[in-house]
């Protein structure tokens, strides 16, 4: 049995038992479904994309109040009647919530660290008090007389009938979000949490994706609020306050913030736990009060300490010994990916002219000029603190130069982001490896092919992107094999040795089919044989017409591989030319060895390797 089979068995069991469950149990299970709709949006927002929000209850309130106002306002209700009023309320709720979430997202998602959750608390409180002070929606008293939902003449007035609709919508949301995360766009979303610089360098518009995730989570909350209003037939501000927003976040975290089904498990655990505590604590303590809040908080601390990743991953590990992994289907009708035509050998691909970078009074790079041509390996070397990494970031769009020009494929790139560099044909690796550690090698490499796909979120949710997705994954597999990592496709990237992780980064960069490849210390952590294999791969790429710029400390590796070398010292170019000239240059010898050429020489292809990280 696989996890997919177990999921289908759970859905079938719930469907078969639904007609026989007691009324009270049906109400509780329906509430679990309503809460899970909000929590699954928080899983996507917080657990996957890395944006913490305490304000989702306010979006639930927007959905509930929108349909309540449409259905109870005399001027509006008469236009639609009791049958169509709820559906007009759904449309209004989704449109209003989407607009509010977009505006709030544009404002608050620029924040990072603890400022973002504090901002969500602020606007969550603001919307809650807005509900209570607007007389048009009843103020603190609220709105009553909300009609039940009617679908094709079938009334959903009873919790048993409405509960079916709640769970159908929840299961559809889980299916759609699973499809989304299992796609090109899903890999982009996963990269938002800890690897935004990497994602931008692979062509992902991280700001746009963050806002889209934020709006999607808000829309799921509004859908839950719409269903809640037509189940209760009454709304007031109390269910949409900050405390409830914190509970929604607890549901996502306790269940497993990185797992969609963890939202369902978390909603079930917290709902049932609160229900039992409210019944048993007054009996045990002999008095009534909000004692359940104290016990509930203590229990949450214990759960978060013992199960830091949430309950769902723990449950998955326990059942993993009996369940087979789901087979990943491979399609034969994969769409052909667009191909890039490489310029003729010797054509300048990337050119920096008088590039200077200042940090206050510190000059990290001073009027650096160099270029990378098609069909060559150009090495950038220098002692520690020479400014190599700063220059590397400027010619890849991570940082902007203070002065000077950078051209890529003969186009000026000043003030362009790393995403635009990737679009023009630049691929890169990083000095400190930046991978999605818990995702497979295959998924990590496929991130590099992001710009070679075109399908968006809706197509991914409805699985209309499968042919393109198969083509992207096939390309990722080809690059993995090409880089000598065949057989490791399904391994988590974090489980590989450091040297192998660096090769994964090279494969990821190649998956984007770049014209220019920037490699930041690619040989660091590799054994001698692995370095030879890497040199063979880079030689093959050079023969294919790629322009390659290498920042490296291993001088033997550089001297045997590079066609041209540029040497930096204190941010200034002190030498440039072929390896033979660099090895005998007095300024280079003095920079590396601290002695003049008369006192010591640099042996060919065996230069001492500086220790430490580049600047």
What does this structure look like?
The protein is 54% helix and 12% strand. The chain has 23 helices and 14 strands. The protein has a six-stranded mixed sheet, with helices on both faces. The chain has a four-stranded antiparallel sheet with strand order 6-5-8-9, with helices on one face. Strand 13 and strand 14 form a beta hairpin. Helix 3 packs across helix 9.
Helix content: 40-55%
Low-confidence parts, pLDDT < 50 over ≥5 residues? 597-601, 605-615
Distance between the termini: 52 Å
**Number of helices, counting only DSSP H or I runs of 4 residues or more:** 23
Query: Roughly how many Å is the radius of gyration?
Result: 29 Å
The total beta strand count reads: 14
Largest sheet: 6 strands, mixed
Question: β content, as a range?
Answer: 5-15%
Query: What is the structural class?
Result: alpha/beta
Mean of pLDDT: 87
- Apparent shape: elongated
Strand line-up across the major sheet: 10-11-12-7-13-14
Draw up the topology in text.
Blueprint: H1 3-17, H2 23-48, H3 56-72, H4 74-108, H5 115-133, E1 143-144, E2 150-151, E3 154-155, H6 159-181, H7 184-190, H8 196-201, H9 206-232, E4 234-235, H10 242-256, H11 260-285, H12 291-306, H13 311-319, E5 348-359, E6 362-373, E7 376-381, H14 388-394, E8 403-408, E9 411-412, H15 418-423, E10 426-428, H16 441-447, H17 457-461, H18 466-482, H19 498-511, E11 516-520, H20 528-544, E12 547-551, H21 555-561, E13 564-569, E14 572-577, H22 579-583, H23 586-593
Parallel strand pairs: 7-12, 7-13, 10-11, 11-12
Antiparallel strand pairs: 1-4, 2-3, 5-6, 5-8, 8-9, 13-14
